[in-house]
Amino acid sequence: MTEKFKNMLEYIITEKEMKSKFYPALSTLMGTMMGAGFLGIPFVVTKSGFIPGLIYILIIGVFMLLVKLYIGEIALRTNGNHQLAGYAGIYLGKWAKYLVMLSMIFGIYGALIAYMIGEGRSLSYLITSSYNLSIVFSLGFWLIMSFLTYIGLKALKKYEKISMFLIFLIIGIMVLFLSWDVKATNLLYTGNNLFLPFGVILFSFLAFSAIPEVKRILSGEERKMKKVIFWATLIPAFIYALFTLLMVGVFGNSVGEIATLTSGLNRGFSILGIITMFTAFFTSSLAIRDMFRFDFKLGRFKGWCFCSFITLMLFLAISLFRLDNFIQILSIAGILSGGLTGILALFMNLQSKKLGRRKPEFSIKINYWIILLLIIFFIAGTILALL
After folding, report:
1. d(C-alpha 166, C-alpha 170), whole Å
2. Mean of the per-residue pLDDT values for the chain?
3. CA 317 from centre of chain
């Protein structure tokens, strides 16, 4: 074998590996975003009207893309494996590390609880045509996901691409069957609660905690990080708008809190919710597990225990006291966790440009005017949504 042929073979293998890592990374970030929040958007949009809701999706999508790029740059400037709390500790100090930890705990555990509630209802509705066994199915879902979370990234790479394919397939079928029944009157209606969608839509675009996981997946191919973040934000934004148009356009104010469980919608479409919450629960669980594992040095097993069993106890407590309001959990988790983490990420990025010990594959311009604009956006949106 000649030297030239060897070099050519090495080049071909490398290119194939690069392709194989891009799509798992893309699926991981998209799978984290397209979870319970995605299913709650049509319901809150019916309270504001489709056009205001579409504007929310566009504006929040742009702002969240920018923040994700800032976090991606932070990850690339930092050696070793960390979660967001670890980056905050490195660049802002211990106070920020614990603040981000609290923000992540509140946001991710809130998300995991919402996924358990939504998954239990969806499975019960699909299998029994009622919600009577929702808690049983929620606990069964938790058991399966705890096992997969312990396995970690190997299981994630295997299932995320399949999940994304199924999501696109089901949405395509929904477009085929529902688009003929869209009513213009449902889309032109304006509700009396213009600010309600902010929290749920913000939650739907979060996925901050998945970016360090994306970096781990792209190990050796970090130059694809920017492209992954861009497409993993753009594609869900388009799907959110399309899905909301279909559900609001066809069902109007009768859309359910979990859109795929709307009365009158074919029961088979609840599979879409089952898949999206499966993928989002998976990546969110890995993020909280890895925060305890890497940033607080608890190790793999203890990190997994903190992730799995705290989620279970919180779910049982919320179910016991009947506090399982799906939309309210999404909105509060999105507003408080997303806003706080997003603001701190801006200052972390500014410091990482000065203190980072690794040359990043991309860099995004930031200054105090950009930081001020984004802070105003998060604070104003939070205040208006909570009024």
Report:
1. 6
2. 86
3. 24
Task: List the end-to-end C-alpha distance of the chain, in Å, as a whole number.
Answer: 72
CB-based contact 162:271 (threshold 8 Å) = no
Token output for 60: 């929040």
Q: Is the pLDDT of residue 331 over 90?
A: no
pTM above 0.90, yes or no: no
Whether 180 shows a pLDDT value over 70: the answer reads: yes
Q: Does pLDDT of 12 surpass 50?
A: no
Whether residue 52 contacts residue 190, with contact meaning beta carbons closer than 8 Å, is answered with: yes
Q: What is the DSSP string of 71-107?
A: HHHHHHHS-S---HHHHHHHHH-HHHHHHHHHHHHHH
Domain coordinates of the chain in residue numbers? 31-386
Q: And the tokens for 160?
A: 């995320």
For residues 355 and 337, give the distance between their C-alpha atoms in angstroms, rounded to a whole number.
Answer: 26
Closest CA relative to residue 211, chosen from 331, 82, 306: 82
How confident is the model over 189-226, as pLDDT tens digits? 888 888 889 888 988 998 888 899 899 889 888 899 99
Record the tokens describing residue 110, joined without a space.
């809130």
Would you state the CATH architecture of domain 31-386? Up-down Bundle (1.20)
Q: Any idea which of 121-125, 155-159, 246-250, 330-334 has the lowest mean pLDDT?
A: 155-159
Count how many Cα atoms sit within 13 Å of the Cα of residue 310 in the half-sphere of its side chain. Answer: 17
Nearest to 212 by CA among 83, 24, 320, 21: 83
Closest of 340, 349, 352, 387 to residue 368, by C-alpha: 349
